[in-house]
Amino acid sequence: MTLITNKRLAAVVLMIVATGAAFGLWLRQVSRADAYPTNSLARNTLDSLPDTILWAWERPEQLNFIDTKRIGVAYLAKTIQLRDHELFVRPRLQPLILRPDTRVVAVVRIETDRLQSDAFTDSRLEKIAHEIADVSTQPGVVAVQIDFDAKASERPSYRNLLSRVRELLPTSMPLSMTALASWCAGDNWLQDLPVDEVVPMLFRLGVNEGQFASRLQSDDDLFSKPCHSAAGVSTDEKIHPPKRKRIYIFSPTPWTPSAVNLALETYQR
Questions:
Q1: C-beta separation of 232 from 216 below 8 A
Q2: Distances in whole angstroms, Cα of residue 167 to Cα of each of 19, 39, 102, 130, 183
Q3: Do 136 and 106 meet the contact criterion of CB atoms below 8 Å apart?
Q4: Domain residue spans of the chain
Q5: pLDDT of 23 above 60
């Protein structure tokens, strides 16, 4: 009788331990899944944006002629530079003229010294996150986009920055990021970032230009999630129109009505 009791006791103990371990695993899985939950409010806002967005960089731009039902504007709102162990913030200094009903994305560009290895200290990361989140309060802004060509060594810090920005932004404010095309082709570090949109830039491709151009020409789907919904192109490097819901178009010269019309025709918008 004692032997049977001990066996039963041992079985109960094993069951408790196994259950506890399984619960711990389940909890870790849920915690990871909930770390970057799908934000339905931000997603709805993002889905309401026009399918064509014009990038307006740091120069005088007059875009009050666009059809705001078809076209939005992503303007460079701020540039953050990490250089010589210092942080420099330069707000937009050039005028931007838009119609009041224009759907606007505020872009923050981050630049780091390529030779500096410890640019993102905790205090700098916190300041940068607040600087980025602050552009969401500018008039007419409905989404925030970060433009940062992060080095491989900067990716962990960039991930932390995105997480902090997501915490600071309003729940309904979409967070977008640009990406080097190579990040979206066989590189999985983007998979669980806390962003609502990733925009691979299909221009200034360097040595990879021929590879990507041929795949676009053959209508080959270049990327999988999370790079499947948007793409960035340029007016001075015309490519086969990528099959994406939303296209961001860059122009190295100021936008004009004829330039906008030509870009829309080129990229079949």
A1: no
A2: 34, 12, 26, 10, 24
A3: yes
A4: 1-34, 41-266
A5: no
CATH architecture for residues 41-266: Alpha-Beta Barrel (3.20)
pLDDT tens digits, one per residue of 100-148: 999 999 999 999 987 676 778 889 999 999 999 999 999 899 999 999 9
Query: Which DSSP symbol is given to 203?
Result: S
| Omega of the bond leading into 241 within 30 degrees of 0 (cis) | no
Cβ(45)–Cβ(173) below 8 Å: yes
pLDDT (tens digit per residue) in 34-56: 334 456 788 888 889 999 999 99
Neighbour-count burial of 111, counting CB atoms closer than 10 A to its CB (0-12 exposed, 13-18 middle, 19+ buried): middle
- The structure tokens listed for 158 are 């960039």
d(CA 259, CA 253) in angstroms, rounded, equals 9
The model's pTM is 0.81
